[in-house]
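Note to self: keep these together.
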Amino acid sequence: MISMDKTKEQLIIENKELHSRLAETEEALMAIRSGEVDAIVVSGAKGEQVYSISSAETPYRTFVEEMNEGAITLSKEGIIIYCNQRFAEMVHEPIERVIGSTFNRYIVPGDKSKFDKLVAQQTHKKDNDLIISLINSLYLKLSIQFLPAYLQGDYCILVATDISEIKKEEKKLLELHQILEKKLDVIQRLRIQLIDKKIDDEVAMDNLRITNKKLAKGISRYEQVVAELKLKLKQKQKQKHAQH
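Structure:
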């Protein structure tokens, strides 16, 4: 009830404050109705409490649980406070055992330092990607996103994509490339030796032509294999992107 003892100036100020609060309330209601927010903070006797709006939360939770990539929420201490079923399958452990464990537990020792370094930077750039290897020989591409400050938590979100098959193809391609380089080196040394000997007779020249044809065919076969592997690698990468 408004006191009759208030001055005109006090009433004007109070009226402005009430109008301001009304505008804020209407703005909040409009944001909730239009789906711009999926949670609200309410102050009460027990302090501020966050209430999620189920209609907004449910589709996102279902999407995270059903997607092909692993999803992890990580504390600043490196503790997994949430993961979906897909990530539990990646590390070959039940989900109840994964939650509460440290993320570094699953990384090979050589990759722990670069992962810790990236997390310690806590950058909010969109290109926080890192490729790591797990102790079970899987290769993962991690996309790391830190939660904004207004959510009041030193947490980061990891999305893990299994790229083990791509890594296997890259390894095969590298091995074939090394074999090709060795054979090309043999060809080069052979040609230099033949030139140094200054072979002038026709028989030696014929043998040289035959040898070059065989070597050319061999190079052509290796180049074809390399081209096929590159094509397969591109196709697998397109399939990975198509799944997103």
